[in-house]
Input
Amino acid sequence: MASAPSKLYADDVSLLMVLLDTNPFFWSSSSLPFSVFLSHVLTFLNSILLLNQLNQVVVIATGYNSCSYIYDSSTSTNQGSDNGRMPARCVNLLQKLEEFVIEDEQLIKEGLREGIASSLLSGSLSMALCYIQRVFRSGPLHPQPRILCLQGSSDGPEQYVAIMNAIFSAQRSVVPIDSCYMGSSNSAFLQQASYITGGVYLKPQQPNGLFQYLSTVFATDLHSRAFLQLPKSLGVDFRASCFCHKKTIDMGYICSVCLSIFCKHHKKCSTCGSVFGQAQSDVNSTSNKKRKTPET
Amino acid sequence: MNNGEQRRLNGEAEEDEEEDDANNGGLAAWERAYADERSWESLQEDESGLLQPIDNQSLKHAQYRRRLRAASTARIQKGLIRYVYIVIDLSKAAAEMDFRPSRMGVVAKHVEAFIIEFFYQNPLSQVGLVTIKDGVAHCLTDLGGSPNSHVKALMGKLECSGDSSLQNALDLVHGYLEQIPSYGHREVLILYSALSTCDPGDIMETIQKCKKSKIRCSVIGLSAEIFICKHLCQETGGLYYIALDEPHLKELILEHAPPPPAIAEFAIANLIKMGFPQRAAEGSVAICSCHKEAKVGGGYTCPRCKARVCDLPTECRICGLTLISSPHLARSYHHLFPIVPFDEVSPSLLIDQQNKFPRACFGCQQSLLNPGNKPSLRVACPKCKQHFCLDCDIYIHDSLHNCPGCESASHSKIPNANKG
Ligand SMILES: [Zn+2]
Ligand SMILES: [Zn+2]
Ligand SMILES: [Zn+2]
Ligand SMILES: [Zn+2]
Ligand SMILES: [Zn+2]
Ligand SMILES: [Zn+2]
Output
């Protein structure tokens, strides 16, 4: 993996996995043009690499129809920056990004999905986690990984299970998922992702100053974070949505066999097929009377 | 309960007599070295008998294969809401040192790992701890959903004495499990060190009582097979195994972490009414109903009665509504929508179509070429046809439960996984 001798890894060396939302449907309607967004992000990535010689940055593009690795600072050489105007790493990255966007666009022509124009966050998250596992496998000494989602598209409900799976896997390997959400309303997926994994969720008030937000909130390594006053969560939406109508509900019925959520009483579970015992609407409160209250 | 007789049964107990008194305070120096460092755990023998650092890869792979087999029988109903009592035998036999540093220490260590794994896989389930000591069963912790409190209670109570009594333990646990709601799966996992049981009455009656209450009893023995344990497990539909050594014990215990296939008559399927509270903003002040203290920040609000609670999942102290957060439920959805096992790409195909195949793992970008540019072993997802390295294969099926390839393609064709 990294060519540097591993004993040099201290606790302030970071591996930053950046998930870059390239969804054309979002960026065409965004107040911040994609090119401006990209220049902020490139400056930010450069500053990460300058903070510590051993820092590593990997960029994965989250497209509308596909996801792909577009940059890895441990494999690309940074030599021969042409005429000093732009470092080679930016040239590499932009070139790969352009190829990706064109390919992704071609896939759009093959078939537009119905519903919300979300990007495939579940895919890029899964890839990032696989990459991080590889870093963990590389030996006891490795940079501290974290994931930064630069997301603008709204949540795709069909990705719910996959995104939750990824969040729990990240939580299990103690990898924080930071999110910087550029969309208009909050993203419940990213709010939960950051809350559950102990990352930071941020929705910049002034997208024009994106670089300031990125460099003050997301640039510090995990060890130094303990000394910073980072944005606090303003509540997390933990409400569930029912399987039957996809309505957001704060009270509902759960199938005791498979835990599917329904907004009203059914006779049979549509997910696992169990037929429910009797039409008890409040099993819980009756059983509660009998039940011993724990004294802990 | 006859102590004298018990002594004779466990002959070895006599020689340890003097040490036993001091057992709690000080271990012998050589024992302490074992207890502190556990150096033997990181070593294994290679073919020529030399000691080598342990190769986790083979262990991991065996585990992975086992889980895959379980997953391929997918779609069977799983008992996802479980109420499990873990019964730990802390009779004199638990002090024996055929497991290092002692049976008790090894059991405690693996029960701790089990509890954490259990709550990871069964977020809505509850665990309680019971110990048997001096022929009496004590309830160490009540049924509850917080792993830390169980682990803490167990580690604080690690001392053993007297005889073991299977009947007393079963009676105690039966009393508690009787009270749980009918949709819950009742289970008892007994870690039994002794070779006998000192019971006040007829244990057969107790076993029938457990059978009638649909309590699934499993026993993991640390010494030799005992008829009564085997009988208990057969009658109640549980598993009975004897641990051969420490890794085996660990494997046996962890086998109980994934939800067992729900046996239809063991629990009645039901719709349970639940509330999904929102998390309050950091910095808001409220009096919680569980500790009755004013607290700043955090906390959740019951959607029915608006009482504040500190932790989820719980039952609202005021209105009795079960409160959970949707992530708690989502933790078990991968049981419902498992991903298919990947196919191994055959070596002959690899040589034929070498140039057409991707050179790097789709997940982690690791090169799939051996030194000398020969293609190495790889697996392919039958749905998205992407290639993965063996390490990613294990990670994807064991922990991630997503195929990165399938997730990186348009979703329109996965209607089942829809939620939210
Ligand atoms: Zn509904
Ligand atoms: Zn169901
Ligand atoms: Zn409280
Ligand atoms: Zn309430
Ligand atoms: Zn891989
Ligand atoms: Zn796939």
Notes: DSSP finds 15 helices and 18 strands in chain B. Chain B has a mean pLDDT of 79.
